[in-house]
Amino acid sequence: MTKIASKFACELASALADAKSPTNQPSDNVKDTIDRFRHALEAVGDTDDNQESRSTLPQDAADWLNEALGELNGTRSFNDAVAMAAKAAGWYQIYNDDAASDNTENSPMRDLASGMYAARLIGPHRGLVQSNQMLAGLFLLRKGLHYPLHQHQSTEIYFAASGTVQIQHDINGKPKTLLPGQVSLTPPNRLHALTMGDRPVLILWVWLGEFGGRNWWWHRQDSGDWRRDAWERSSDASWVKTASEQVPHSEIIALQSNDNQS
Ligand SMILES: [Fe+2]
Predict the structure, then answer these.
(1) Are 10 and 41 in contact, with CB atoms under 8 Å apart?
(2) Among 183, 150, 153, which residue's Cα sits nearest to residue 165?
(3) Which of 15, 153, 206, 237 would suit a FRET pair with 223, their CA atoms being 20 to 30 Å apart?
(4) CA distance 106 to 251
(5) How confident is residue 125, by pLDDT bands cut at 50, 70 and 90?
(6) Alpha-carbon torsion 39, 164, 210, 32, what sign?
(7) Where are the domains positioned within the chain?
(8) How close is the Cα of 19 to the center of ligand 1, in Å?
(9) Strand 239-246 relative to strand 226-233: parallel, antiparallel, unpaired?
(10) DSSP-derived secondary structure for 147-177
(11) Ligand 1 mean position to 185 CA, how many Å?
């Protein structure tokens, strides 16, 4: 039996112990929250992988992955754990090619769907190790891709393994750079956006808390108003668009006043 997910969890827990968090404010209480993630990862223990979950990436994404793996700059055991996880995990396209959207609206999804892939290693339904408390895995993004403002109920961490990414928090937040070896914490329901640099980006991600429910994507219309689309995970871990609405002006004003205080 292999222990690829357990090794991944162990290496990520120890990398998080020293990781800087340049995208966060002190009020995010990063240290205590990261400790919670570390304990959850450590609780995986030396569990055996329960399956040989494997799926192939399309050739272009497989090339980004190889490029990203070639640039890992962690410890030998960290790099080995990430490379093993990347080979063993079942990769999937995170968002669909927007079958749920109508053709009259210019959806950001069409451009993005082919630029983002995830591989789940730990989670309730899919992955190498079963957990009802945590989702964890790998996230692969095409260079130059912009993943627009979105929000979800779960608490999320992104640990950068390879490539450089700019992370924006809140509606008018100034993007900050996340380098390999650093971590970004996203508290529940915080708007966040990612812009990749000139190399493919490989992230180790973990969600804790409420990981069902809607993932809202925000986009600004030509009129200056904001709309948001709700995406929900289906049982095969892909996402389906289930709602679309105008964001009330009062909500935008409240968010902008939060930004001004931070
Ligand atoms: Fe997120």
Answers:
(1) yes
(2) 183
(3) 153
(4) 24
(5) confident
(6) positive
(7) 4-261
(8) 19
(9) antiparallel
(10) EEEEE-SSEEEEEEEES-EEEEESTTPPPEE
(11) 9
Q: 65 in helix, strand or coil? A: helix
The radius of gyration of the chain from alpha carbons, rounded to an integer in Å, stands at: 18
Looking up tokens 């109508």 gives 102
**Could you tell me the distance, in angstroms and rounded to a whole number, from the CA of residue 153 to the centre of ligand 1?**
9
Q: How far is the CA of 58 from the centre of ligand 1 (A)?
A: 23
Q: In what order do the strands lie in the sheet with 146-151?
A: 176-178, 165-169, 192-196, 146-151, 214-220, 226-233, 239-246
- Domain 4-261 sits in CATH at 2.60.120.10
Distance from Cα 80 to the centre of ligand 1, integer Å: 26
Contact 162, 199 (CB under 8 A): yes
- Summarised one tens digit per residue, pLDDT across range 210-237 is 777 788 989 888 998 999 989 887 776 6
